[in-house]
């Protein structure tokens, strides 16, 4: 089955840039989506189709993809960005939705 | 305003059954695929199942296939998850979420607040 690999945690100081990686075999051929989940809340879609941002999501959030890695970048990080972030793809070989293991973003 | 409201969670013994519901409002329910995603305590997101807008096509995660059944009533704007042969490891918050496509675009733009299922003796 298809696997997405994320670092368990990332730390960043307020005002700096956070990057969260999501690795997967041939991920360049898949559409990657990203979700933010604050403690005790439901997930929120922040990036879809690799780079698109839903309305209402700040421009500070951006997505990219290169080789076997997709990346979520958060510029000018704020305290409110502290959350778990999950990448997700559709694996059309298995007809499965696949989530990465999640990355906890700590804002120091 | 899009709203998704899950219900039906609770405490059930191993081997038991439970049916979850997700009441949808604020959009034309029948034109969107819908999904269930769960999250065990302190763990990450795990996809459970997805159903197309028409209800004609369904897919399941490996851990629930053969035990869980997803369905929908488009006349009642409600999504269901029938869970049978429940195991301790099925304990989780279960979220329903909307897929922007009728046939499935397989990302999820609106989520409910979740309902907790606890499987324990």
Average pLDDT over all residues of chain B: 96
Measured as a percent range, the helix fraction of chain A is under 10%
Distance between the first and last residues' Cα of chain A? 36 Å
Q: In percent, how much strand structure appears in the residues of chain B?
A: over 45%
Percentage of residues in DSSP E strands of chain A: over 45%
Number of helices of chain B: 0
N- to C-terminal separation of chain B?
40 Å
Biggest interface, and residues per chain?
Answer: A-B, 26 and 21 residues
Order of helices and strands of chain A: EEEEEEEEE
The run of helices and strands of chain B is EEEEEEEEEEE
Sheet with the most strands of chain A? 6 strands, mixed
Number of strands of chain B: 11
The low-confidence parts of chain A are: none
Q: What general form of chain B does the structure show?
A: globular
pLDDT < 50 runs, ≥5 residues of chain B: none
Query: What oligomeric state best describes the polypeptide chains here?
Result: heterodimer
By DSSP, the count of extended strands of chain A is 9
What does this structure look like?
The complex is a heterodimer of chains A (108) and B (121). Chain A has 108 residues and is an all-beta fold. Chain A has strands at 9-12, 18-23, 33-37, 44-47, 61-66, 69-74, 83-91, 96-99, 103-107. In chain A, the strands form two sheets. In chain A, strands 1, 3, 4, 7, 8 and 9 form a six-stranded mixed β-sheet that branches. In chain B, the strands form two sheets. In chain B, strands 2, 4, 5, 6, 9, 10 and 11 form a seven-stranded mixed β-sheet that branches. The radius of gyration of chain B is 13 Å and the shape is globular. Chain B contains no helices and eleven strands. With 121 residues, chain B is an all-beta fold. Chains A and B meet through strand 3, strand 7 and strand 8 of A and strand 5 of B.
């Amino acid at each position: 089955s298809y696997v997405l690999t994320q670092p368990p945690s990332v730390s960043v100081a307020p005002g700096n840039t956070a990057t969260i990686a999501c690795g997967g075999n041939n991920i360049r051929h898949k559409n990657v989506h990203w979700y933010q989940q604050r403690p005790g809340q439901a997930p929120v879609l922040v990036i879809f189709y690799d780079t698109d941002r839903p309305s209402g999501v700040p421009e500070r959030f951006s997505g990219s993809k290169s080789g076997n890695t997709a990346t979520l970048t958060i510029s000018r990080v704020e305290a409110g960005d502290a959350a778990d972030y999950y990448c997700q793809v559709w694996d059309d070989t298995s007809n499965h939705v696949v989530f990465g293991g999640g990355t906890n973003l700590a804002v120091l | 305003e899009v709203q998704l409201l899950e219900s039906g969670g609770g405490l059930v013994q191993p081997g038991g059954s439970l049916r979850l519901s997700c009441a949808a409002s604020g959009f034309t329910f029948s034109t969107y695929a819908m999904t269930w995603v769960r999250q065990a305590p302190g763990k990450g997101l795990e996809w459970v199942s997805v159903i197309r807008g028409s209800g004609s096509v369904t897919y399941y995660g490996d851990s629930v296939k053969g035990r869980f059944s997803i369905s929908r009533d488009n006349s009642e704007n409600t999504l269901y998850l029938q869970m049978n042969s429940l195991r301790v490891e099925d304990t989780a918050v279960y979220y329903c979420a909307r897929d922007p496509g009728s046939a499935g675009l397989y990302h999820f733009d609106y989520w409910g607040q979740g309902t907790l299922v606890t499987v324990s003796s």
